[in-house]
Write a structure and sequence with these properties.
Elements: H1 7-15, E1 18-19, H2 24-27, E2 31-33, E3 36-44, E4 50-58, E5 65-72, E6 79-86, E7 91-94, E8 99-102, E9 105-108, H3 111-115, E10 123-126, H4 133-143, E11 146-147
């Protein structure tokens, strides 16, 4: 059975502090896989929640990428996508709002879309906060309370 989270739970998971490991830059370097590059990083939030950062980008189209923060549901292999930062590679339509756009956009999990039986992160909004993969990662880290370690490697991305 699919996990359902309330908007408040989603906001709490996004706001939970997530300390990045000292080697996070190395561990987030994408690796080739069937026409695209990808990488995943599992980490614990300060309150003990398990999260996964999922990075994917096309090897052929620099605007075709996805930067995802997922909550790992305890006792299952299920991941619940809290946020997804997508490149300018496709058109998106919000089914409830009947709104279509093309460009960089941020998906957010919502109760409304879960209630309709749709993917939890089906709702998206256009953004000008990033214009490439690296900026999208930085945007996610800023939005979801990631903290870099202190020291010479103490940058988020």
């Amino acid at each position: 059975m699919a996990t359902r989270l309330t908007d408040l739970e989603i906001q709490n998971f996004l706001g939970e502090r997530k300390d990045l490991p000292p080697d996070h830059l190395q561990r987030l370097r994408t690796k080739p896989k069937s026409g695209h590059e990808e990488r995943e990083l599992d980490l614990k939030g300060i309150s003990g929640s398990d999260f996964r950062v999922i990075l994917r980008r096309s090897m052929y189209n620099s605007f075709d990428f996805s930067v995802i923060l997922a909550y790992c549901v305890p006792g299952t292999t299920q991941v619940f996508r809290l946020r997804r930062y997508n490149g300018k590679s496709h058109e998106h339509t919000n089914a409830i709002e009947r709104e279509t756009f093309y460009g960089f956009h941020i998906h957010t999990a919502t109760e409304r879309y879960q209630d309709l039986g749709m993917r939890e992160d089906s709702f998206a909004e256009p953004t000008d906060r990033f214009s490439n993969f690296e900026e999208a990662v930085a945007c996610l880290f800023d939005d979801a309370n990631f903290k870099a370690p202190d020291g010479p490697q103490g940058k988020l991305f």
